[in-house]
Design a protein that fits this description.
alpha+beta; six-stranded mixed β-barrel; 24 strands; about 50% helix; globular
């Protein structure tokens, strides 16, 4: 400890003599550590931060078979029969239309069983949570618990809110409680505005992952085969998850025998809640994304480390005499290495501390970059113990990485040459080679980031030339969920019919049609079908993307009916079910034959006649191959949710205000889930790619800046150490251009080597991005050349500045000073 205190005192005294050096090194590291901490804060908020509950280690999530969900009835059986689980609770997300002071607003909430808060160990800030009788019978107890943020935002934190009402989807809910400030729900990124009992599910829009199997019943509560509920259990004291898994397997097997139509063959899996953020399947998809982001910012930090290592190498060269004297007086090399590492760790810890402060700005910028979704994404990116530990470990590792190499190089000083101030060429040459190697690594890493960004940017540009099967910029979209307004089926049909008629009458509208799923929507709907007129127990059904559309849909989007007919007014709920399939589906299942007139059957036993084949168009992504697709008749099976697509004579964006006015003339309180162009919907599907391109481009340019600074430092140091050589050459007749050319060639030689290594590394890494690219190869030559050109131009500028300084050396003064 005494030696450490001495080392620290010596470090601070030496740093006071070179404040510019210390400030530059600290700021460089702070930027690198700051971006790493910012990204880790977001990863922490999404994947690592535990729930704000009383006993998270005893909580488990229950998943039934591949769907990942239990059903409300299954949940009750689990709760009644389990002895290893002290209690179980169900929940799911929901959207609702909030009628607030005469204005409709979409809010995010949650459906929860009456014991949900008890299982989580959460206590109300005001009032109470649900009572058992409020979650026993369907639709009989419209009560609500407000989320803390909603209570503060909408009700100004009024303590007298209990007993008041709020209107959701036309139903008045009595406020019985307010949740605590530190509990915003169990879904990362989604702050719950209001909780209501699960028995009110038919009055709102339950969203998330649903699956359905044939089973009796009319409502979501009655139908055992309709699975939509997340389930959490609280392990009994002394019970292990393995014991509970065995017990639940037995219960699930009994349910499979008792209810074969909905439960036969289903499995159940228990997972510790601490290991789940949203759903194991989605969590698995998010982990590679998180790892990729951390790898990218890790490269930025390595570039910063190389820069600071170069600075410390230059500083070590200027201290050769000091180190030589200390060695000559008996100091051990290990002791000197420890002293030099103390200096580097001091700088890195100072940079880490400043980096944490910078990350507060960085995380806010990242969180402010909202995806185009109906409700805002809210992440708790506050600094907690994990973020501080991450920053501390990164800072220590950074100090070791950039400090060890200069320290080892410094203690290898040749005592005789250093003490005589002679023989500098050999030692300086070795260190110059090491500094050059660090610059090469900076250039290579920066190029990898830049090429990745250029590939994604070029890919996004290529989407403009891909044939989508329709003209997105001429298609406007109005999306509604009439359930949120309490419309009956008859009133809902009348609303869509009236809206279609009025919209088509507008002078700048060509046609309009309704669909339940938009092209490029994040919602993926699939149908399980058997070819022919019956289901076969010996065969598995095919899964095919599907939607329900109204008349006029195909002419609106410009998808031609190439065989058969379109839906018509004769396709009613009482007529035989019909469908229109895509060309890709016809080619796959009826090759060489006409699909029109043939049939397919759903697992429910309903058989559909194919009345038409529509031209292919893009469904999920702009880069996909033609996809088998089924269009059902919306008039045969009404749904209160639907999107009206409107084809306009010019850009659709200019017609959005007029389209909104038409809908509001029919219902002044109508809630729009979307009023956009299909072009914007397509941009939503590309949001991840655009965000990735922006991040990669930003980090790549930052890396180029650091590499340029490092290159500038190397050339500047070279100029400073070769004053006599330059003076001699100029005295013997060398021109300023000759001197500039010499130093530029030396610097650009390093850049050239770095570009070669970077291009090779990018060629290997780019294959990871292949799944994100549309219309271009992972080895796209334009991207590689453009990135290398940007890097080369910046590097040339970084070379010219110190080279210009060298050309202005006065030969007489240079020789005289020597």
């Amino acid at each position: 400890m005494r030696d450490l205190i001495w080392d620290l005192k010596f470090t601070f005294r030496s740093f006071l003599k070179s404040p510019a050096f210390v400030l530059t090194a600290v700021v460089t590291l702070a930027l690198g550590i700051g971006v790493n901490t910012s990204i880790f804060s977001v990863v922490n908020a999404v994947l690592l931060r535990p729930l704000a509950v009383t006993d998270p280690d005893r909580l488990v999530d229950l998943y039934t078979s591949e769907t990942g969900f239990a059903h409300a009835t299954d949940y009750q059986d689990f709760r009644d029969e389990s002895t290893t689980l002290e209690d179980l609770a169900g929940h799911t997300t929901m959207f609702a239309s909030l009628d607030w002071e005469g204005q409709a607003e979409l809010i995010a909430g949650a459906l929860a069983t009456w014991n949900y808060f008890d299982v989580l160990g959460v206590r109300p800030l005001l009032g109470r949570f649900f009572l058992p009788e409020e979650d026993r019978t369907e639709g009989t107890h419209p009560v609500a618990v407000l989320g803390h943020r909603f209570w503060e935002r909408r009700l100004a934190g009024d303590p007298g809110v209990l007993g008041q009402t709020i209107k959701l989807n036309g139903t008045d809910y009595t406020i019985v409680g307010v949740g605590p400030e530190d509990f915003q729900g169990v879904y990362p990124g989604l702050t719950v505005d209001v909780w209501i009992p699960t028995m009110m599910v038919e009055a709102v829009e339950a969203v998330g992952f649903h699956s359905s199997a044939p089973s009796p019943g009319e409502t979501m509560i009655e139908r055992r085969g309709r699975r939509w509920l997340f389930v959490k259990g609280l392990l009994s004291e002394g019970a292990s998850i393995e014991q509970s898994q065995a017990e639940m397997n037995t219960i699930m097997a009994r349910l499979g025998e008792a209810y074969p139509e909905s439960n036969e063959g289903r499995q159940i899996t228990l997972v510790p809640t601490n290991e789940v953020r949203i759903n194991p399947g989605l969590d698995g998809a998010m982990l590679p994304v998180a790892a990729f982001l951390l790898a990218v910012v890790g490269i930025v930090l390595l570039i910063a480390c190389a820069n600071v290592a170069n600075m410390f190498l230059a500083r070590a060269s200027s201290r050769r005499g000091e180190i030589a004297i200390r060695l000559a007086l008996g100091a051990g090399r290990g002791r000197l290495i420890r002293q030099l590492l103390t200096e580097s760790l001091t700088v890195s810890l100072a940079g880490g501390s400043l980096g944490v402060l910078l990350s507060l700005i960085g995380t806010r910028l990242l969180v402010a970059y909202q995806p185009p979704v109906p409700v805002p994404i809210t992440l708790d990116v506050s600094i907690d113990g994990r973020v501080l530990l991450f920053s501390a470990l990164v800072s220590i590792a950074t100090g070791a990485i950039f400090g060890l190499t200069p320290a080892l190089a410094a203690v290898r000083t040749d005592l005789v040459s250093a003490l005589k101030s002679a023989g500098r060429t050999g030692a300086a040459g070795k260190r110059a080679g090491l500094r050059g190697a660090l610059v090469i690594s900076q250039v290579a890493l920066s190029l990898v980031l830049l090429i990745g960004a250029m590939l994604i940017i070029r890919s996004l540009e290529a989407t403009d030339t891909i044939d989508l099967g329709f003209e997105a910029k001429n298609l406007a979209v109005l999306t509604f969920d009439l359930d949120m307004h309490g419309y009956s089926d008859a009133d809902g049909r009348a609303f869509f019919d009236q809206l279609s008629e009025r919209v088509r009458a507008l002078p700048d509208v060509i046609d309009a049609g309704v669909s339940e799923r938009l092209p490029f929507s994040i919602n993926i709907v699939q149908s399980s079908v058997f070819l022919g007129t019956e289901t076969l127990d010996t065969e598995a059904p095919f899964s095919v993307d599907s939607t329900r559309v109204g008349s006029g849909y195909f002419s609106t989007i410009g998808a031609e009916i190439i065989e058969g007919r379109d839906f018509s007014s004769t396709d009613t709920p009482d007529s035989p079910p019909v469908a229109i399939v895509s060309e890709a589906m016809a080619r796959r299942f009826w090759p060489g034959n006409s699909a029109v007139g043939d049939h397919f059957t759903r697992p429910s036993g309903t058989t559909y006649e194919i009345i038409g084949v529509a031209a292919d168009y893009k469904v999920r992504t702009v880069g996909e191959e033609p996809r088998p697709f089924i269009h059902y008749s919306r008039s045969q099976a009404y749904n209160p949710y639907g999107s009206m697509l409107v084809q306009t004579r010019g850009p659709a964006s200019s017609q959005l205000p007029a389209l909104r006015r038409v809908a509001e003339e029919i219902d002044p309180n109508i809630l729009f889930l979307q009023v956009i162009t299909l072009e914007v919907e397509m941009a939503t599907s590309l949001f991840g790619a655009r965000a990735g391109a922006n991040l990669l481009a930003g980090f790549g340019l930052f890396g180029v800046f650091l590499a340029a600074v490092g290159l500038y430092g190397v050339i500047s140091y070279s100029v400073g150490g070769r004053t006599r050589e330059v003076g001699t050459r100029m005295a013997l007749g060398a021109s300023r251009a000759d001197v500039i050319g010499q130093f530029v060639r030396e610097g650009m030689r390093l850049v050239g080597i770095g570009v070669l290594f970077g291009a090779a590394g990018a060629a290997a890494v780019s294959r990871v991005l292949a799944s994100l690219l549309y219309g271009i190869s992972p080895l796209d030559p334009i991207s590689f050349v453009a990135a290398a050109s940007i890097l080369g131009a910046v590097a040339l500028a970084a070379n010219l500045i110190p080279a210009g300084s060298a050309s202005r050396i006065d030969p007489m003064r240079a020789l005289g000073s020597e």
